Amino acid sequence: MPGAWSETKDATEEIQKICDQVKGPVEAVTDRKYTVYRAVKYRSQVVAGENFLIKVDVGEDYDHLSVHHKLPCDGGEVVLRGVEQHRAKDAPLVPFTN
Hints:
Elements: E1 9-10, H1 13-21, H2 23-30, E2 38-47, E3 49-57, E4 62-69, E5 78-87
Antiparallel strand pairs: 1-2, 2-3, 3-4, 4-5
């Protein structure tokens, strides 16, 4: 259903590629250089493009990313919208703003 968030799913190669595209902005926001940066879970929401909530293993804990993937007609750009740091492995992926 458009506008509703999906259930939490295991990350795919496509989700890892999206994470890789925003790694630089994530490092800038968190003021960290990641040696471990692996997508493990995600949720998606179809809007004017697609929103993602992605749980990323960053070594000692997890970061949650809020990412927007624009429609191809709008440039198809992947944009970081927010980061929640130091999340637990079992912390649920819930929408956030920051």
